[in-house]
Design goal:
The complex is a heterotrimer of chains A (about 500), B (about 150) and C (about 325).
Chain A lengths: L6 H4 L2 H19 L5 H12 L4 H25 L9 H50 L3 H14 L8 H15 L2 E2 L6 E2 L12 H19 L17 H9 L2 H15 L5 H16 L11 H13 L6 H6 L5 H11 L7 H6 L1 H30 L6 H18 L4 H19 L4 H27 L3 H6 L2 H37 L1
Antiparallel strand pairs in A: 1-2
Helix pairs in contact in A: 2-4, 2-16, 3-4, 3-14, 4-5, 4-14, 4-16, 5-9, 5-10, 5-12, 5-16, 6-19, 6-21, 7-19, 8-17, 8-18, 8-19, 10-11, 10-12, 11-12, 17-18
Chain B lengths: L4 H24 L7 H22 L11 H25 L1 H15 L8 H25 L11
Helix pairs in contact in B: 1-2, 3-4, 4-5
Chain C lengths: L1 H24 L7 E5 L6 H9 L13 E5 L6 H9 L7 E7 L1 H8 L9 E10 L1 E6 L7 H10 L5 E4 L5 H13 L4 E4 L3 H10 L5 E5 H9 L3 E7 L27 E8 L4 H16 L1 H9 L4 E4 L1 H18 L4
Parallel strand pairs in C: 1-2, 1-3, 6-7, 6-8
Antiparallel strand pairs in C: 3-10, 4-10, 4-11, 5-8, 5-9
Classes of the chains: A mainly alpha (about 500), B mainly alpha (about 150), C alpha/beta (about 325).
Chain lengths: ~500, ~150, ~325
């Protein structure tokens, strides 16, 4: 309960100002295409030079929380996921926005972010010692199997064709291997100079999600009759709240997966949203509605990716191991002020530690408030005509993909992937499993190589990868996930055949 | 609506060709240690690609709407602008100049208003300038991104 | 028409070039200067680069702010390849170097750079490699560790941040000098991942940066057994012996020197201006305070000193890596 004693620090005038500034700024930065939470936090570090450590951390904590949620804004409105965490958000969220339900989508997204986020931070407050043990339990073999569990999700994720889902995943895995291999430094699949830096995830996301969208808008042509006329109804906040209450299952699955997976260093944050989305779909009676603008998917994805924020800091705060790129940047923000995370932080600077954590707690609430406030206004973006929307997204795609590394190579890759994805998309392949492959490829590979090397020095790869309770548990998950996909695929094609037969007999 | 068997076959053979290339490279390139993982992946990749190809040829592939000739024609001009913009203009003319041109070009191409309508031209030019001003404020002033300047800026 | 267009392009290029040159001749730098960091945001190199350049905007320093661009991948190869081949050679684009990393990689081959591709500006830090073990490890001294390695050839797992980086060099030297064979496990994701492997007990021991090791030891997560440098680090780890004084012939080849460089072909006037101004920036009191607070050892070296150091490292590493 020590954290309660430090709430005062959050409500000092300067602290509160920074908290509000960080939240609003974070929402805007997060909504800017091409600015991942990591980049946004890194951009803010110089500002903290001039602040007290406590105040600097308040700013960074608020910004971290709200950039993750802000990424949902561009994912929903423009179908440009701000970060890997927001991929699953865009799947249903953007469909809702296109149908004029952008405000509802944003309300639900911010509310579920808030719920997930609060629970995540509370876990951070109360269960830190326990969680840090869990974070360390994952060695290379476990992380390898975890990545494989993630890969098995591919078959069932946002694709109506089982084999095409798997094939999309394979394409993603292959794309992830392009460039210099990380350990040996060997060159792989570098067909063009622009590829020598590998395929970076943020430009890839912009290309794979936003560009097919732009080309689709081209395809609608310039005839008024073919341009969809959407209405943007006013969304009452209370209705959104009621709708959220009706989706407790999605919220629970999202928060649970988000906080459990988010904790695992190096893997969690990126796939928590997608895994939660997939699990919610598997447990949902409305399985077929996912991907068509179904709020359940949105709620699961957003609660998961904000639930991960708190737990993802556990390895950093207790063991000084940054578990995610953003945590690494936050570590820098601490070190600049001479504060070393770990026991030092909680023993010698409890004021700093707890104020930081509390600021994330309050930041969640502020973020929801600001998000809700602007949602109705932002949702009007659906009224923008196709011609202007396509132009704007195209220009944003260029600036967004360039600004990450200031590299034209990234921009070229972005459009090439986008155009390729458009054609794949037209034939039943989908971007979500492809991106999952792109994210999981390097994780699976690095841990496989590392695991085999450690195994070679111990009892050999079979013992290392195939024994131990955690390995067995993860393998069990992977196998049952594949079995479930096969089974539901079989059921689906059977019922489809029945449906066809019925139609014919009619 | 679903794409024709021929279209599916063309698409799936393209994917199969990529899969074959990847598999071949994975098993022939050196050093072998760095290609261990690509080898594992490529086996699955080609397996699924073959499966997908067979489904397409036999007409089992049903998912996906394909591309109609009419749609291809409406897409083409916009796609051409996008390709020239990203691959040629952005670097040589400068980000802001080329973006303004591309914005105006795309919005004009797909604006339902007739081309002779002066008012719609004015509207589009104003929007273009306004949007570019926002982009400049966001990326150049707030985020301080140094974009290629090319011939103009 | 074509001729006209061509003439226009030539004229424009001419204008651009003269503008560029005159800008250089005048008060260089007159716009912000970029520093490309070949490692991810939040890594030790990125973190230190941001600190040492934080006063660049002051009137008596560069007079222009410095911004950081991260180009991570493949142990730094992606960023340095880009820097050697594609970076503008106008003095407005610098890169952070890590020695011995880029020199060892260029000796090993497969990259587009060597010491001849770059012009050093100045050095800001020297971070020696340390040998460390988890807090509950049975090894309490470097002697214990070496004895175990001798008794169990190839069984001592040792994590480090990749191949052909300082940690790898230290591991090679340790094995050579003790006549043992250890299993060096390169991790992806830099020193942090290698440190996690040690703390979580995935490996028996690890090699890491002194700055990161010092922090982890202070947090009570690891024990530091030895430093791979010529003398003890008095500031942070006065009680930890060097490998040399423990009787193993390991010199300072693996010490991670960090500094700034520009690509070859940058105008000499720009190099001279930077080389004159940058060391003062590294020595600024606020920089020193922040670096010390973060546990990062400072070592400011001028352009001439860095050139010497690069030459010496090139020679030493070529010998060490010959057999690999």
């Amino acid at each position: 309960m020590e954290f309660l004693n430090h709430f005062g620090g959050v409500f000092e005038p300067l602290a509160l100002m920074l908290l509000i500034g960080g939240t609003v700024g974070g929402l805007i930065l997060g909504a800017t295409p091409g600015l991942s939470p990591t980049m946004a936090v890194a951009l803010l570090i110089p500002f903290t030079f001039h602040l007290q450590p406590v105040h600097g951390l308040i700013l960074l904590g608020a910004a971290y929380t709200s950039t993750v949620a802000g990424g949902a804004v561009s994912a929903i409105l423009l179908k440009i996921p701000g970060a890997p965490a927001n991929i699953a958000t865009s799947l249903d969220g953007h469909e809702m926005a296109k149908q004029g339900h952008g405000a509802r989508a944003l309300h639900l997204s911010f509310l579920s972010s808030g719920v997930g986020g609060l629970i995540g931070v509370l876990l951070l407050i109360f269960l830190t010692p326990l969680l840090s043990q869990w974070a360390l339990a994952f060695g290379p073999s476990h992380l390898f199997w975890l990545a494989i569990v993630g890969v098995t999700v591919i078959g069932s994720l946002d694709s109506n064709s089982f084999v095409k889902g798997l094939l999309s995943g394979c394409i993603g895995l292959w794309l992830s291997m392009i460039g210099y291999d990380d350990i040996q430094g060997a060159q792989r699949f570098i067909f063009h100079d622009a590829l020598s830096g590998g395929i970076n995830i943020i430009p890839a996301l912009i290309g794979l999600f936003a560009i097919p969208q732009v080309i689709d808008m081209f395809g609608k042509g310039r005839f008024i009759t073919e341009i969809e006329t959407v209405k943007v109804p006013k969304q009452q906040f209370m209705n959104s709240l009621r709708e959220l209450r009706g989706n407790v299952r999605a919220l629970t699955i999202g928060t649970t997966f988000g906080s459990i997976i988010g904790l695992i260093p190096g893997v969690g944050g990126q796939i928590a949203g997608l895994v939660a989305y997939d699990q919610t779909r598997k447990f949902s009676p409305d399985r077929d509605k996912f991907g068509t603008g179904h709020p359940e998917g949105l709620i699961a994805a957003e609660s998961a990716n904000n639930a991960m924020v708190g737990p993802s800091l556990v390895p950093l705060l207790t063991l000084s191991i940054p578990g995610s790129p953003t945590a690494a940047v936050l570590l820098g923000g601490l070190l600049i002020h001479g504060i070393f995370p770990g026991t030092d932080l909680f023993d010698n600077h409890p004021q700093v530690a707890w104020t930081f954590i509390n600021s994330m707690l309050i930041g969640q609430i502020l973020m929801v408030a600001f998000g809700i406030y602007t949602a109705q206004w932002a949702a009007r973006i659906a009224l923008v005509p196709n011609s202007l929307m396509a132009s704007a997204v195209l220009v944003l795609a260029l600036f967004g993909s360039y600004s990450i590394q200031q590299s034209m190579g990234d921009v070229y890759i972005m459009l090439a992937l986008g155009v390729g994805m458009f054609f794949l998309d037209r034939f039943g392949f989908s971007a979500a499993p492809l991106v999952l492959g792109l994210i999981l490829g390097p994780i699976a590979e690095a841990n496989f190589i590392q695991g085999t090397q450690i195994a070679a020095a111990q009892d050999g790869p079979w013992v290392y990868f195939l024994t131990g309770p955690l390995n067995m548990l993860l393998i069990f998950f992977a196998v049952s996930s594949i079995a479930f996909s096969f089974w539901s695929n079989l059921m689906a094609s059977k019922s489809k055949k029945d449906g066809l037969a019925e139609e014919v007999t009619k | 609506m679903t794409a024709s068997r021929l279209q599916h076959t063309v698409m799936s053979s393209a994917v199969l060709a990529v899969a074959s290339l990847v598999t071949w490279l994975s098993f022939t390139e050196e050093p072998a240690a760095a290609f261990l993982f690509p080898r594992m992946i490529s086996v699955f990749f080609i397996l699924f690609a073959v499966w997908n190809f067979i489904r397409a040829v036999t007409g089992l592939a049903q998912v996906g709407v394909g591309i109609t000739p009419k749609m291809a024609m409406t897409i083409l001009p916009g796609l051409a602008v996008a390709l020239v913009y990203i691959y040629v203009a952005a670097d040589t003319l400068g980000f802001y100049a080329s973006s303004a041109m591309a914005f105006l070009a795309v919005s004009t191409l797909y604006d339902p208003a007739p081309r002779s309508d002066i008012q719609s031209w004015l509207k589009r030019i104003t929007i273009t300038l306004g949007f570019m001003a926002v982009m400049y404020a966001l990326f150049a002033i707030v985020l301080k991104v140094q974009t290629p300047t090319g011939l103009f800026f | 028409m074509k001729k006209l267009a061509k003439g226009f392009v030539i004229a424009a290029t001419a204008v651009a070039t003269t503008w560029g040159v005159s800008a250089l001749a005048g008060d260089f730098p007159d716009r912000p200067v970029g520093v490309a960091v070949s490692y991810g945001a939040g890594g030790a190199t990125d973190f230190q680069a941001r600190i040492v350049t934080m006063v660049a905007g002051n009137k008596d320093m560069l007079g222009q702010p410095v911004y950081i661009v991260n180009k991570p991948g493949a142990g730094g190869r992606v960023g340095w390849n880009w820097f050697a081949t594609k970076a503008p050679k106008d003095g407005y684009t610098m890169s952070a170097y890590n020695v011995p990393h880029f020199i060892a990689q260029s000796i090993k081959g497969g990259v587009k750079y060597s010491t001849d591709s770059f012009e050093p500006i100045a050095n800001w830090g020297a971070d020696p490699a340390v040998v460390l073990v988890g807090k509950d490890s049975k090894f309490n001294t470097i002697k214990d560790l070496v004895e175990f390695a001798k008794a169990n050839p190839g069984k001592l797992t040792l994590s480090g941040a990749g191949l052909f980086v300082g940690h790898h060099i230290a591991a090679l030297q340790l094995q050579q000098s003790t006549g043992t064979k250890m299993a060096y496990i390169p991790t992806k994701g830099g020193g942090a991942a290698a440190m996690k492997a040690v703390i979580a007990g995935n490996v028996l021991a690890g090699i890491n940066n002194l700055s990161d090791g010092y922090r982890a030891a202070k947090a009570g997560n690891v024990k530091i057994l030895a430093v791979a440098d010529l003398e003890r680090n008095k500031e942070f780890l006065p009680d930890v012996p060097t490998l040399k004084e423990s009787g193993y012939d390991v010199d300072n080849s693996s010490v991670n020197f960090r500094g700034l460089m520009v690509p070859k072909g940058t105008p000499q006037s720009a190099i001279d201006t930077l080389a004159a101004k940058v060391p003062a920036m590294f020595k600024h009191a606020r920089v020193a305070k922040r670096m010390k607070a973060g546990g990062s050892p400072i070592k400011v070296m001028t352009r001439a000193e860095v050139q010497e150091m690069w030459k010496a490292r090139q020679k030493a590493l070529a010998g060490l890596l010959k057999g690999l």
